[in-house]
Amino acid sequence: MRKAIGIDERDWLAQLDLARILTKQGKAKEAHVHARQAHELNKKVEDVHVAYYNACVNLHDYSAGLAELDEVVKLY
User: Fold this and answer.
1) Can you give the pLDDT at residue 75?
2) What is the separation, in whole angstroms, between the first and last Cα of the chain?
3) CA dihedral over 13, 48, 61, 23, signed as positive or negative
4) Average model confidence (pLDDT) for the chain?
């Protein structure tokens, strides 16, 4: 994933996948950076909001996490 992002940092899917991987590895701060980048690049995909929600909650930023859940609801 890092290689893909190195080629094109605006690849929202690579950013999203890397955020998920880092979350599973327990690297909350790094995951948040990539989840936020994916979020900035594509706000039309539910999984982007869910990943950003998880990243926010893992950093104990509950208000930002709740805002992301609102965005998921708006998509439906």
Assistant:
1) 87
2) 29
3) negative
4) 93
